[in-house]
């Protein structure tokens, strides 16, 4: 099934994982995958470390997830640190282990660097990566990233939308958004995309909050704003169980509003844990 098809009914569902550093972490992740699989997601995605440092582990995880669940899988892929031939090699390896889709990204600068540098013989922009996949690996579906609050490197929203339009025109199937906590930002972004002629599904990316310090750190990295009232509630009590419950309730209300207003589905950044996302989903998805 194509990526767009999952989001044609407004009930698309996907989960994003990241590769653990240890074998023990991988085994625990597969337990989480089993728990999340009970909600019958359409696919799992898996990231990799900066500069492709965990690509081998990413493919291992995707292969094991697919064998364990028979659910389609998607690998992240960036332009960072790779020549075009190395990107081709990775795509061939991904296909060989059963990868169905690619999340095509330019990628962030490696740790210690502040500006993206194109690798000699490599690509500079995500739309170039989309074009490569579409022209040479057409069996792979392609997701790209969208930024409701504007990519941190874009000079303004208009330039950011132009960049997104290039990715879509190059052959992307769906857009998955960066995390956000004000639904008005998502719907404003969707309206601007439509005005730009972007017609593919724009899937909201949701990260349920379980810890104030953690989400403040993550939000600062991607320039996502946190509602003052939400932060105030989290600050009311430092107890982990309190913060977990407040975060889950906020995410439940956020997802409920999104679904009622006709989003094509939801993509969850689960941080390799199932409990918070499962609590949010129980109100909207039936457990198999």
Name of the CATH first level: Alpha Beta
Which CATH architecture is right? Alpha-Beta Barrel
Helical content stands at 40-55%
- Rough shape? globular
Question: What's the CATH topology name?
Answer: TIM Barrel
How many strands, what sense, and barrel or not for the largest sheet? 8 strands, parallel, barrel
Tell me the structural class.
alpha/beta
Number of domains: 1
Strand runs, count: 8
Largest beta sheet: what is the strand line-up? Answer: 1-2-3-4-5-6-7-8
- The separation of the N and C termini measures 20 Å
Strand content: 5-15%
Quick rundown:
This protein is about 45% helix and about 15% strand. The protein is of the alpha/beta class and about 290 residues long.
Features:
288 residues; alpha/beta; TIM Barrel; eight-stranded parallel barrel; 11 helices; 8 strands; globular
Polypeptide structure, described:
The protein is an alpha/beta fold and 288 residues long. The protein has one domain (3-281): TIM Barrel (Alpha-Beta Barrel). It contains eleven helices and eight strands. Strands 1-2-3-4-5-6-7-8 form an eight-stranded parallel barrel, surrounded by four helices. The mean pLDDT is 92.
SSE topology sketch:
Elements: H1 3-6, E1 12-17, H2 23-37, E2 43-46, H3 55-69, E3 73-78, H4 84-96, E4 101-105, H5 126-136, E5 141-146, H6 157-170, E6 174-179, H7 183-195, E7 202-206, H8 212-222, H9 228-235, H10 240-260, E8 265-269, H11 275-281
Parallel strand pairs: 1-2, 1-8, 2-3, 3-4, 4-5, 5-6, 6-7, 7-8
Helix pairs in contact: 2-3, 5-6, 9-10, 10-11
């Amino acid at each position: 099934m194509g990526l767009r098809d999952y989001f044609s009914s407004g009930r698309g569902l996907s989960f994003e994982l990241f590769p653990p550093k240890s074998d023990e972490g991988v085994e625990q992740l597969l337990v989480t995958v089993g728990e999340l699989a009970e909600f019958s997601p359409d696919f799992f995605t898996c990231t990799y470390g900066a500069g492709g440092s965990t690509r081998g582990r990413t493919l291992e995880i995707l292969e094991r997830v697919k064998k364990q669940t028979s659910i389609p899988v998607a690998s992240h892929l960036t332009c960072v640190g790779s020549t075009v031939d190395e990107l081709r090699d990775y795509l061939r390896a991904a296909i060989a282990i059963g990868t169905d889709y690619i999340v095509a990204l330019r990628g962030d600068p490696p740790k210690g660097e502040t500006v993206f540098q194109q690798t000699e013989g490599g690509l500079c922009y995500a739309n170039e990566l989309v074009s490569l996949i579409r022209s040479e690996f057409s069996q792979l579906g392609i997701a790209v990233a969208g930024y409701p609050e504007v990519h941190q490197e874009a000079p303004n929203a208009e330039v950011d939308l132009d960049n997104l339009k290039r990715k879509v025109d190059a052959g992307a199937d769906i857009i998955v958004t960066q995390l956000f906590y004000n639904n008005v930002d998502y719907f404003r972004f969707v309206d601007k995309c439509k005005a730009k002629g972007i017609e593919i599904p724009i899937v909201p990316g949701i990260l349920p909050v379980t810890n104030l310090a953690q989400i403040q750190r993550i939000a600062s990295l991607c320039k996502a704003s946190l509602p003052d009232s939400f932060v105030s509630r989290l600050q009311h009590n430092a107890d982990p169980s309190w913060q977990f419950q407040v975060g889950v309730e906020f995410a439940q209300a956020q997802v409920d509003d999104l679904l009622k207003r006709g989003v094509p589905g939801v993509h969850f950044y689960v941080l390799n844990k199932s409990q918070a996302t499962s609590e949010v989903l129980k109100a909207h998805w039936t457990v198999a």
